[in-house]
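Q: I'm writing up a methods section and want to include an example of the input and output format. Could you take the sequence below and give the corresponding predicted structure tokens, formatted cleanly so I can copy it straight into the document?
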Amino acid sequence: MKKTLVIGSTVADIIVKIPSLPKAGEDINIISQSQKIGGCAYNVAHILNLTNTPFILCSPVGTGLYGDFILSELKKADIQPFIRIPNMENGCCYCIVDDQGERTFLSHHGAEYTFKKEWMDSINMHDVDSVYICGLELEEPSGIEIVEFLEEHKNLVIYFAPGPRINKIPSNIINRVFDLNPITHLNSKEIISFTKKEIIEDAILKLYKQTSNKIFVTLGKKGACYIEKGKIFTIPGVPAKIDDTIGAGDAHFGTIIASIKYGITTEQAIRRANLISSAVVSVSGSLISLEQFNKVSKSFRL
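A: Here is the clean output for your methods example:
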């Protein structure tokens, strides 16, 4: 099996649990605080790693306290740092989690959100057949270099997660990506906001006219829907006791990518993705352990 390039960020997630989001001027006590490795690209790579799906994590690492933390965590995961940026600090993400498990992100971007095409020169592209990208990186000034890299390698299958800031991505950038016919993954809020359609099915059909490829939309506890060959299908969710929702979408897409690489049908890929993401929301942070993954996935094999 050929490799998937996972382009994007690896960050320190500082998880702060609170009773509820404070009002302006309010003083509250937090419930707990922890620091864990995360970032959209790393979360996807983690699922690929758990499923033994070959990948290269193309995530730059900066300096400073958070850069050192990322290096330490990558070493624990037996993942080689892709590239070090010596004169730029790594950022972090403050994950504010309320008593319902809903997360609000406050992101401080650093070296992890930069990209240069020349970094990819060391990769043997004959061993690669696909690439994952996230919209957060496209929003940055260096996002154009990601687009140009994709346009220079049109043979690659593109897995695209535009993310919650989809409307902040310059239109000329995101349209160039959509013109490359990516397999796209969003949640219901993201696709409705982007397409200006109030009904999910209408939103999917509108975007499908531009991408002409599979689109996956997560629906929270209701599961997920997708369009394939012009037809829309819905797969119900898996009940879960929610700790927090950090990384659930990344785990969902990572499972879909792994399933596609293993030749699993789209319907079964969604069912597996729903199952894995339900496990992720039941733990603190964006990652489940290999033991937890094996327990959840015992009903299927990738």
